[in-house]
């Protein structure tokens, strides 16, 4: 097992393991004061792993609230149902909440845990690659409201995150590949992972823990996402535009990779990225055979770029690369950005 420890920010300890050998001791410690625990679980995960917590808590009442996972569960309606469930159990501040599922479940459950009675002890057991390396790490939670994704949410960290890679054996291939989109992004942000490790059939403990280490390194210096944490958005400016234009039919990770490919094009045009480094980077992006082409014209993309959270009305704080392939920021107008990918 690899343990990535608690650090000086509110960033929780993360455990990465094949199997649930250490689950009992990790969660036993986190919830030592709890009399009961509410587990919010993805429906598909409950069907496959409904017995996962059997024998883990000998002295606590465990109650499950089953939610159909996916983006559509990140609503006020789900939030309200989980709160009603907690109230019906008589869940108190010393008790606990566990999120058991992918990023949609960790997001909505984290928001309940942060706000119910002004905050109860919260742990995550993520079951998708994307949630293990990204969504469950770093304290952000939230739900969508109207058309706005993650409109309501807080920064509230888990007491512990337990990543059991055995869950990935049942993950649909499309979901696994979506997670790899973020994994490959981390390779450009300092994760010590090789192309061979990324190309391997299943993710290793080393691969997952390296991605988490990199995410935590950004979160620990900028927990509230005011400066350097934004580097984690590498590939996301174009990626989000592509995802929206596709009507969310393309997966998030796939769009991040397409977005990264466009960012490399920008870096070649505006930051002096050499042909050699460009080719090297494109090879790494394509190591798992993802389609890196962008199905939309620069003009179409432009209409969505203004919704980027790094756009201030006239320019975007765009995350790009310098000549040596280090991630850097450059303030670019939308026409500069779009002009660079034509
Ligand atoms: N808070 C953050 O910092 C952060 C960061 C990145 C993404 N997110 C959020 O994460 C969400 C996406 O998360 P996701 O990609 O994990 O998707 P998800 O939670 O929607 O799960 C994807 C699908 O996989 C299924 N599934 C989950 N685990 C499984 C398993 N082990 N076996 C079989 N099926 C399984 C689910 O039922 C679901 O259908 C988005 O809402 C995004 O906004 C949050």
Task: Describe the secondary-structure layout.
Layout: E1 2-4, E2 13-17, H1 23-30, E3 36-42, H2 43-49, E4 61-67, H3 76-89, E5 96-101, H4 103-115, E6 121-126, H5 129-135, E7 143-145, E8 148-152, E9 160-164, H6 173-187, H7 195-199, H8 205-221, H9 236-245, H10 252-270, H11 275-285, H12 298-305, E10 315-321, E11 327-333, H13 334-340
Parallel strand pairs: 2-9, 3-4, 3-5, 5-6, 6-9
Antiparallel strand pairs: 1-2, 7-8, 10-11
Helix pairs in contact: 3-4, 4-5, 5-6, 5-8, 6-10, 9-10, 9-12, 10-11, 12-13
The protein binds nicotinamide-adenine-dinucleotide (NAD).
The site of nicotinamide-adenine-dinucleotide has 28 residues, from helix 2, helix 4, helix 5 and helix 6.
Give the averaged pLDDT, no decimals.
95
CATH topology of the largest domain: Rossmann fold
Q: CA-to-CA gap between the ends?
A: 47 Å
What would you say the CATH architecture of the largest domain is? 3-Layer(aba) Sandwich
| Number of separate domains | 2
Structural class: alpha/beta
DSSP strand content: 15-25%
Please state the CA-atom Rg, rounded to the nearest Å: 20 Å
What's the story with the biggest beta sheet? Answer: 7 strands, mixed
Can you tell me the residue ranges where pLDDT is under 50 for at least 5 consecutive residues?
A: none
Tally of DSSP helical segments: 13
Order of helices and strands: EEHEHEHEHEHEEEHHHHHHHEEH
* Order of strands across the main sheet: 1-2-9-6-5-3-4
Gross morphology: globular
């Amino acid at each position: 097992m690899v343990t990535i420890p608690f650090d000086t920010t509110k960033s929780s300890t993360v455990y990465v393991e094949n199997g649930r050998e250490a689950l009992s001791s990790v969660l036993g410690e986190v919830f030592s004061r709890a009399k009961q625990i509410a587990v919010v679980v993805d429906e598909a995960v409950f069907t496959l792993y409904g017995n996962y917590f059997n024998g883990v808590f000998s002295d606590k009442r465990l109650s499950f609230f089953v939610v159909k996972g996916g983006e559509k569960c990140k609503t006020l309606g789900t939030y309200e149902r989980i709160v009603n469930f907690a109230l019906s159990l008589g869940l108190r501040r010393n008790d606990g909440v566990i999120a058991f599922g992918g990023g949609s479940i960790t997001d909505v459950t984290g928001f309940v845990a942060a706000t119910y009675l002004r905050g109860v002890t919260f742990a995550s057991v993520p079951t998708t690659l994307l949630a293990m390396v990204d969504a469950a790490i770093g304290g952000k939670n939230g739900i969508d409201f109207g058309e706005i994704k993650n409109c309501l949410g807080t920064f509230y960290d888990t007491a512990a995150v337990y990543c059991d890679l055995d869950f990935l054996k049942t993950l649909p291939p499309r979901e696994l590949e979506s997670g790899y989109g973020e994994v490959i992004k981390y390779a450009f942000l300092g994760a010590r992972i090789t192309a061979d490790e990324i190309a391997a059939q299943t993710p290793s403990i080393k691969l997952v823990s390296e991605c988490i280490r990199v995410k935590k390194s950004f979160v620990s210096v900028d927990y509230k996402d005011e400066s350097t944490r934004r580097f984690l958005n590498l590939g996301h400016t174009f990626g989000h535009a592509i995802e929206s234009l596709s009507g969310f039919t393309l997966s998030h990770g796939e769009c991040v990779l397409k977005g990264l490919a466009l960012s490399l094009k920008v870096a070649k045009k505006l930051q002096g990225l050499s042909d050699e480094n460009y080719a090297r980077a494109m090879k790494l992006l394509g190591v798992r055979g993802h389609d890196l082409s962008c199905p939309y014209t620069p003009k179409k993309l432009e209409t969505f770029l203004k919704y980027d959270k790094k756009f201030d009305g006239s320019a975007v704080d765009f995350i790009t690369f310098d000549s040596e392939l280090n991630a850097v920021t450059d303030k670019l107008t939308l026409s500069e950005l779009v002009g660079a990918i034509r």
